[in-house]
Amino acid sequence: MVPKPPEGHKWKEVKHDQEGTWLAMWQENINGAYKYVMLAANSDIKGQSDYKKFEKARELKKYIATIRKDYNKELKSEVMAERQRATAVYLIDQFALRAGNEKGEDEADTVGCCSLKFEHVTLRPPDTVVFDFLGKDSIRFHEEFKVDSQVFKNLKIFKRSPKKEGDEIFDRLTTSSLNKHLSNYMNGLTAKVFRTYNASWVMSSLLKEMKSEGTIPEKVKDYNNANRKVAILCNHKRTVAGGHAAQMEKMGDRIKALYYQEYRIKQMMLDLDPKLKKKKGEAYFALKEGIDDEWVKAHQDAMVEEQREKIRKKFEKDNEKLVAEGQKEMKPKELDERLKAADELADKFKDERKRKKIEAEGKSPSIEKFEQQLEKLDTRIATMKTQSEDREQNKDVALGTSKIDLKRKWNLLANKTRAQNYIDPRLTVVFSKKFNVPIERFFSKTLREKFEWAIKSVDENWEF
What we know:
DNA binding, 5 strands, three-stranded antiparallel sheet, isomerase, EC 5.6.2.1, DNA_brk_join_enz, single chain
């Protein structure tokens, strides 16, 4: 049934397109661009589309051995078009290159294997190929790979004179002809399916080997490490955020602040029992490396200023409440009185620095209570360090996507597209259930709705 158009309007055309995932479209009147009303991410039809996409990739495992056998044979074909096609499939399969000139409805045009030009490829004998071009989202793809000797020989032939800059490497191949060839192996198989298959296959292999233990943050880091490996193998990079360095510095200061808290508690323990220094050793009570007297002074000043700011904000909020209730505001004198608490904290820190001694604080302080506080701080520090390492390692990787043949991939490795696009979401669900990590740690509310079919359909023993 065709829905009614908005009042006072009529549909320009009613289309029946089994392949389309948009519901309506129009041409805006400024730039003449076409706009689409798309299906919601959590719609049943969209869920079926995602399911079919990943099932299509799973189906490829039945044919991948035959495909690899055939393209390795055709690398030496006397028919140049076949040789070019075989070389392209090799690069797409082994190094997760995009086919190029292949785009989804929500993607920009991409430069890839089939659209490589003379200047995009540099050959270094005996077997190294350097790729340098602007790939998806205009991100520079600059990588070098060791390739099969026949592939190197073929690329050398494809670049042979009279070819020059601007000429295509694969001048007898198009993405459409490549996909038509691949569909002979399996209905609906395109070059794009290789990325989904390889991403999910590698992630599946990593999960089988994984023995994730420890805290929830440590397990999340293990998952992200695997995810990052897949992303790197699939050449999924992003530009490092401009504020990354500042964020890491801020996180480092927060970790130092926790270490300083531990230092203060240990000094309080010494205040209660000086013999502990001999028992536990002098190093136990020393400041952590990277924390010196200058840092301590700056941190203490910041703590005092933070307390002052909290007092001011509380004073303003209390005054707003009084006015709202029809009462008189408190006078500035009251604020001065409240701020004395911050002044006392500043005096205490100054006295500690002068005497080089920190006295035990709190209600009925005891060694046991302090040790319990240290234990909690240790957990917080471990969690923050894990998060910091994870963030630093992932700074230039768009988490997760695809690739292959583990030994080969590991060699590439030695040398957050997003995971939901290429890695089968059921693998994330498997990790979540296998290692008892809440699925909320991996999928946002939107993704949980989008992948509800995956969350409900598998247990920890499911395999890709």
